[in-house]
Design brief:
337 residues, alpha/beta, 8-stranded mixed beta sheet, 17 helices, 12% strand, binds nicotinamide-adenine-dinucleotide, binds magnesium ion
Length: 337
């Protein structure tokens, strides 16, 4: 994959265009403010009763109803939660898209799994920063950027890639590097990563480690430190230096245990399950299940959330975090620098 940078981008592709940012959450606020500070005309599209209105007004960005923002836009960027997008799309977006304009996304779920079917007279593309909105905004403000993925689903104008690249540049991505992928690859790898490793895999591993120690009679506080708290130190090292780079910072005893025990925890059976999970994503079964869950009012989702909140790791963690002075201030020092 070849990265492109600001020097490769023609910002003229979005010059003078009006950009509607639909939603003002994690990504919405970061895109809107970075685009505005890059000289773009931005309107934030929100529901009348949206809890995000006061924040947007405080930031001094223009706010309009979703339908109104889309009508005026040359680029409509959908930044409300993926499961909410289809209803908003049908109600306020679809019939208000200007022919020849762009319909844009920061994740491929809706387009790839067909929960959103755009008309054929618009460009459809993606610009997905590889970081949470707060980081996208913070990096931009200090003159850097977060790497972005772009992808083209539909190129009506023949300029979709130039427009997507210019957009990615205007939110700061061109300072760090922009990579081109496609909707299928972005969507399936994103879902797999969050299910198998980042969210599902990690929380299950941490919880199982904690339970194993507590059930064997060790103090929950010790189990919390060893299985959750110290994870950040290890992850920060892996993030900065890779896996072997991280191992340079741990003891030989830790390294020996790592090399010999790690593959017993994540073993062939675990890998077979990972493959099954990937297959469920690829076949659309996961998407179908999640769309049905959302349509039913998220009954299971709500139960999972309530049960997880009651796990003893939460209570012990809440208590221990009051001992950590860096959580008492917003000027938290980085732990590994
Ligand atoms: P979010 O949950 O932070 O923000 C949601 C925004 O949409 C809020 O302003 C909320 O008020 C509004 N909203 C919620 N329900 C709505 C509805 N029914 N109608 C209208 N507005 C509604 O969302 P996010 O995490 O910024 O995600 C937005 C998109 O960006 C998603 O496609 C997501 O996959 C993608 N993305 C997110 C991240 C991330 O780190 N959070 C990273 C890359 C891509
Ligand atoms: Mg992701």
């Amino acid at each position: 994959m070849e990265a492109i940078y600001d020097r490769d981008i023609d910002r003229g592709a979005i010059e003078g265009k009006t950009i509607a940012i639909i939603g003002y959450g994690s990504q919405g606020r970061a895109h809107a403010l970075n685009l505005r500070d890059s000289g773009c005309k931005v309107i934030v599209g929100l529901r009348g009763d949206s809890g995000s209105r006061p924040g947007a007004q405080r930031d001094g960005v223009e706010v309009a109803e979703v339908a109104e923002a889309v009508k005026r836009a040359d680029i409509t960027m959908m930044l409300i939660p993926d499961e909410e997008q289809p209803a908003t799309y049908l109600r306020d977006v679809k019939d208000n898209l200007k022919p020849g304009s762009s319909l844009a996304f920061a994740h491929g779920f809706g387009i790839h799994f067909g929960t959103i079917v755009p008309p054929d007279n618009v460009d459809v593309w993606m610009c997905a920063p590889k970081g949470p909105g707060r980081m996208v905004r913070r990096e931009y403000e200090i003159g850097r950027g977060v790497p972005c993925l772009i992808a083209i689903h539909q190129d009506k104008s023949g300029k979709a890639k130039a427009i997507a690249a210019a957009y990615a540049g205007a939110i700061g991505g061109g300072r760090a590097g922009i990579l081109e992928t496609n909707f299928r690859e972005e969507t399936e790898t994103d879902l797999f990563g969050e299910q198998a490793v980042l969210c599902g895999g990690t929380t299950a591993l941490v919880t199982a480690g904690f339970e194993t120690l507590v059930n064997a009679g060790y103090a929950p506080e010790m189990a919390y430190f060893e299985c959750l708290h110290e994870l950040k130190l290890i992850v920060d090292l892996m993030y900065e230096k890779g896996i072997e780079g991280m191992r340079e910072s741990i003891s030989n005893t830790a390294k020996y245990g790592d090399y010999t025990r790690g593959p017993r925890i994540v073993n062939d059976e675990t890998k077979a399950t990972m493959k099954t999970i990937l297959t469920e994503i690829q076949s659309g079964n996961f998407a179908k299940q999640w769309v049905a869950e959302h349509a039913a009012g998220k009954p299971n989702f709500t139960n999972y959330k309530a049960a997880a909140a009651k796990h003893p790791i939460e209570a012990v963690g809440a208590k221990l975090r009051t001992l950590m002075p860096w959580f008492q201030t917003d000027k938290a020092p980085a732990l590994t620098k």
